[in-house]
Amino acid sequence: MLRLIAVLTLTTTIAGCDAAAPPRGTIDVFKSYRTTQCGPTAGVYDQLERDLTAAGVTVLAGREDSDGMMRIALCGAPDGLIGVFTIPADHLAKAQAAGFQPHDRRNVTFPGG
Asked: Nearest to residue 45, comparing CAs of 91, 78, 87, 82?
């Protein structure tokens, strides 16, 4: 009985790890805010979403996130904010043409900070 409980717990835990993955047939893309610490960020997320829509991309979901890189705490230094959007996988080329990149949850980095 203990073995069964251990297997069920492990299976549930492993299944739960993939909960943040985008639904099948979709992909997450991102683009840097290119904003700085202590600077304004209002409206940047909305503008990125409008950029995608203008490129003919259907936005299914989105969120503000961080590129995950360590940064010096200094006004004027890059803040690492990114906009992440879930889109249909067949819209990836349009999103890339608009300057968005596929979002890899394990290593989100991009050129230019």
From this structure: 82
